[in-house]
């Protein structure tokens, strides 16, 4: 029996890698897991976000650790980075789990999220381990992001998980299902766009079942 591939956990908007603690506990110790910061979101990074650069940074970090192939779970913008890797570095991506991915976020949805961000007290952002300017830079970068141009090229087995309250995620999930051959959908009732935070056990159960399937 071969050892399971490592699982790379890519966090979402307004999150830091520490958000994965409950998910990791729920998934169990059966496989190695890595939860890297993405370039442009680390506390000491210059303000500015580029999705391709974030994906390249994740790939480089894995290669430095000697990881030639891994499974990926990406939430929100982490899902967008995971999709980019699945297209540009298919050798690196085994199986792909997308939880509330951002595929083609509308301008109105991004404006609403920016407005909501401006209302969050700075002290709360500090407690969350995130920076308001860096998050705003992500929103600006996503204005020109169109994942529909790339997702049809994803060859990795793909599972999409969406929260029942995540309207934008439901639209994105349908876009992935329509473009990625063999992609499957699971819905977590009552879940938001950040399932790793509000429903970590349910997300872990669905991820484990999917990753345990044979390729």
TrEMBL record:
The AB hydrolase-1 domain, residue ranges: 7-205
SUPFAM superfamilies in UniProt: alpha/beta-Hydrolases
Top-level division of the source organism's lineage: Bacteria
Keyword Hydrolase annotated: yes
A GO molecular function held by the record: hydrolase activity
InterPro entries xref list: AB_hydrolase_1 (IPR000073), AB_hydrolase_fold (IPR029058), Carboxylesterase_BioH (IPR050228)
Coiled-coil regions listed: none
Keywords assigned by UniProt, alphabetized: Hydrolase
Statement: the UniProt record of this protein carries the keyword Hydrolase: yes
UniProt xrefs under PANTHER family: HYDROLASE ALPHA/BETA FOLD FAMILY (PTHR43194), PIMELOYL-[ACYL-CARRIER PROTEIN] METHYL ESTER ESTERASE (PTHR43194:SF5)
Name of the featured protein: Alpha/beta hydrolase
């Amino acid at each position: 029996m071969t050892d399971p591939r490592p699982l790379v956990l890519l966090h979402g908007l307004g999150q830091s890698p520490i958000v994965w603690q409950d998910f990791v506990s729920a998934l169990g110790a059966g496989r190695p897991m890595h939860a890297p910061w993405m370039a442009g979101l680390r506390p000491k990074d210059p303000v500015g976000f580029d999705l391709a650069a974030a994906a390249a940074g994740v790939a480089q970090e894995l290669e430095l650790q000697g990881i030639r192939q891994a499974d990926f779970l990406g939430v929100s913008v982490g899902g967008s980075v995971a999709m980019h890797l699945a297209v540009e570095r298919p050798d690196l991506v085994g199986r792909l789990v997308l939880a509330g991915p951002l595929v083609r976020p509308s301008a109105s949805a991004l404006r609403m999220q920016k407005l909501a961000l401006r209302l969050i007290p700075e002290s709360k952002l500090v407690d969350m381990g995130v920076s308001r300017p860096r998050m705003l830079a992500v929103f600006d970068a996503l204005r020109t992001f169109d994942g529909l141009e790339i997702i049809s090229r994803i060859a990795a087995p793909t599972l999409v998980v969406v929260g029942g309250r995540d309207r934008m995620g439901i639209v994105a999930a349908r876009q992935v299902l329509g473009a990625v051959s063999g992609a499957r959908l699971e819905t977590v009732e009552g879940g938001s766009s950040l399932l790793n935070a509000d429903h970590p056990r349910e997300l872990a159960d669905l991820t484990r079942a999917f990753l345990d399937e044979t390729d």
